[in-house]
Task: inverse folding
């Protein structure tokens, strides 16, 4: 491939990436609604740890694991905001383990 | 879907995302080799602008455009490092428009 062919390929891959990120966002919104209805906290550090383990396990390179985890740290942060924005008025107070310890509305 | 089904779906989407990110990395490495061989600069702000325009155009939501561009800013930065790491000894000096103005080795 020459450089223009490589760039066309990247543009096509990016469209697929955008679609997957949106599919992920829709699923995260669904979880957000379930959490809201059952008063579960948005921030769940144990689940976020499992997400990182899953992507590291799936990673066959050449993207280095550290770079993948760096990117996923940002993806997780964005998705957490998506959940919070579903209902900004409702934010359970959580303890250091992320468990809801008191509810306010 | 209940919350566990949603999480299984996210785990599956993440495996697809990791594979696409690696396919993108491979293509970026190919570009990096072409740039190295033709002494083109790694940093090309005009191309990075086009990448952001492409993903914004492809975005049908629900991920907000600002969040998508935020994530892509990090993806682009990681990919730029991937190119630089192909040959750390060779870094063309670029002017403010990203054009190589002097070569050092």
Result:
């Amino acid at each position: 491939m020459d450089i223009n062919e490589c760039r066309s390929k990247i543009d096509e891959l990016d469209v697929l990436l955008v679609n997957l990120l949106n599919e992920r966002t829709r699923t995260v919104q669904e979880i957000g609604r379930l959490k809201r209805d059952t008063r579960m906290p948005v921030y769940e550090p144990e689940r976020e740890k499992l997400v990182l383990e899953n992507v590291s396990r799936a990673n066959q390179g050449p993207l280095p694991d550290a770079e993948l985890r760096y990117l996923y740290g940002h993806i997780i942060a964005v998705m957490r905001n998506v959940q919070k924005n579903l209902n900004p008025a409702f934010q359970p107070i959580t303890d250091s383990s992320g468990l809801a310890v008191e509810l306010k509305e």
Q: What stands out?
A: The longest strand of chain A covers residues 100-102. Chain A is about 65% helix and 5% strand.
